[in-house]
């Protein structure tokens, strides 16, 4: 999910969110994502951060084949779909209200042999975390925006990661509170800015758990 359209031209930006479909091609697959701004708002449109993260996964040599992946705040599911096409076992998550829409996009865009390796689950950050294990990769696009969710999001990151896990966060740093969250992350993770897309002002951050030594 994301907060609001952040194009300098707000009217032009909103127009694309009112399109009922958004078309992409990743991993040699045509992907048709249904959008529903009117009914579900920010949870049901494709944001720039998701597209940039998909491009990064495909072009930067991230080895997702046979890895375990969880996407947080998946929205339309584009990132999780691309991760599955790249060979990962993927758990795609969002809140209950978005799940039916999310499942539709996943089912419509993945062949049956790949769909068997994908699950769509409800996840409210910080809650019922025992239903989730550790993952090789944790993916999130435009999920850093509401300050009241920061503690629960960090708690979720800590639960689903081991010292070998990699978090990839794609976002635009809009406000000072976004930097506050990054500082919260750095108390538990090494955080590196590994990619910047000049066209969209979107950053991708790579984070891994800090090593802890037993005394």
TrEMBL record:
Keyword set includes Methyltransferase: yes
Cellular component GO terms, alphabetical: cytosol; protein-containing complex
Transmembrane segments: none
GO biological process, one term: methylation
Localization, UniProt: Cytoplasm
Keywords per UniProt: Cytoplasm, Methyltransferase, S-adenosyl-L-methionine, Transferase
Record's keyword annotation contains S-adenosyl-L-methionine: yes
Catalyzed reactions per annotation: L-lysyl-[protein] + 3 S-adenosyl-L-methionine = N(6),N(6),N(6)-trimethyl-L-lysyl-[protein] + 3 S-adenosyl-L-homocysteine + 3 H(+)
GO molecular function: methyltransferase activity
Domain of life assignment: Eukaryota
Similarity-based family: Belongs to the methyltransferase superfamily. METTL21 family.
PANTHER family assigned: HEPATOCELLULAR CARCINOMA-ASSOCIATED ANTIGEN (PTHR14614), PROTEIN N-LYSINE METHYLTRANSFERASE METTL21A (PTHR14614:SF14)
Name by which UniProt lists this protein: Protein N-lysine methyltransferase METTL21A
Organism: Hymenochirus boettgeri
